[in-house]
Hints:
It holds the Pfam family Abhydrolase_1. This protein is of the alpha/beta class. The protein has ten helices and seven strands.
Amino acid sequence: MTGDATAGALPETEYGADNSGPPVVFLHGFAADALTWAPVQKSLARSHHTLALDLPGHGRALDWPRIGNAGVSARAVATTLDRHGFDKVHLVGHSMGGTTAALVALARPEQVASLTLLAPGGFGPEINHRLLRRFAAAVEAEELADLLEQFFHPEFRLPRLIARQTAAGRARPGVREALMHIAESLIDGTSQKVLPHEEIAGLPAPVKVIWGTEDRVVPAHQTDGLPARLSTHLFDRIGHMPHLEMARTVCQIIRQQTARG
């Protein structure tokens, strides 16, 4: 995969000082933005150089020249890595960002020091297409709050700030249209395309897959039958948002990855 030489670097949120190790680059999921990583990123920034990117069509990259599926995002991420001149990075991706991270690693294995995937898309055909389409189209705060709850474990107490921030973001011109376009590019009718598991398992970098057993977006049973070389962590009473539902545990796993990679 080559980057798009005509595009600039994706907008980023950066924490932590440069050090001798590769930076940790965070890629968010569908309809989120770089801020979703704040709890994890700020904790890791005490010891690592970290960057969270806004993917095309999201956040500060709403007007990116091209928006679409994870392949589009992967090319934009590749361009961004080139612009920074990073020799190696630790990639951490959630949901659609997990698919994006995997595609970057498959295309540029020599550039990825470790790969950490949280509830990644593309690990099986099943996807809650109705929820994603409704979430993309919603603009009213009450409806958004109801839909957001389905991304978490039923007993998780969703902070009101998340729903308020989401509703405020949907008020920006073009956001709803961009998300609806991206949703359709991710979903093939009622399913999603599947990544090559064996090729991911064969990457030279350590790969960890994190999943909540109560995920209502992409089911955790998609981890069944994965190659043994893929290190899989399943967590009870966790939904589709492990980086928010168990931020401390996710930080620990990423630190393990950076120590190995």
